[in-house]
Amino acid sequence: MCELLGMSANVSTDIRFSFAGLALRGGVTRPNGDGWGVAFYDGPACRIFHDPIQCASSEVAQLVRDCPIKSRIVIAHVRRANRGRVTLANTHPFSRELWGRTWTFAHNGQLKGVKKRQLDRFWPIGTTDSEHAFCWILDELARQWSRLPSSSELDVALQELLSDLGSLGVFNVLLSDGRSLYARSDNRLAFVTRKAPFGKATLADRDLRVDFAGETTLKDIVTVIATRPLTRDETWTAISRGQTLVLRDGVPRVRLSTVRSAYSSETKVGKAPSMKSCR
Q: Is 2 a catalytic residue?
């Protein structure tokens, strides 16, 4: 299965540690060797890197690992192709402009019949069901609003649209407009929020450890989302099936109702903390 990585933070943050773990799953510790991509937001714009080869051996991925690109919202993906050939055009995350902002989208799963849904303004470049679903979402949003709506209005609309697409199959998704990060889980997605007092963490796929206390300030809040927990010594919270988690400034802003523990025994998976509804 493809794997996702997302980050939301209240300060510009270096994600090289988490990306190093994801890169290994792009062809070494997991068979996701059919391309990779990562998007770093800078306000409404994005730096996006793609390569249609395995992430673990990509020189472009090595550049990303070596360069401390800082961002407040990041979306990354390593692909295991099941629909659509292995090409640059089919490599996630996909991006489009809407209301003067860059939207990015990465998906894990399959959506039966999604290509029967008619498109208008936004069209796929590649042949994946994922990109078709992304274009359909943006078309639906553009029909509802001619200008950028409030984040709270988008929260409601996107949860409905993502739930609708989820009825077609497996739909684990990361989506952003540069203001909010939306994470929709179907069968596997989890998050960890790091804030003061910061501790140490070790990657699950490699003996690499970092002490976040030496890399952060007391005001920093960073939430990382992944298909499978990326560290072996932190408590990750599984997002329940069908739940859309909305994050702004590193803070999850929806109340999670139930939590499924579907991960390896070596990684601690906890219950969701109490969270206020979207604002």
A: yes
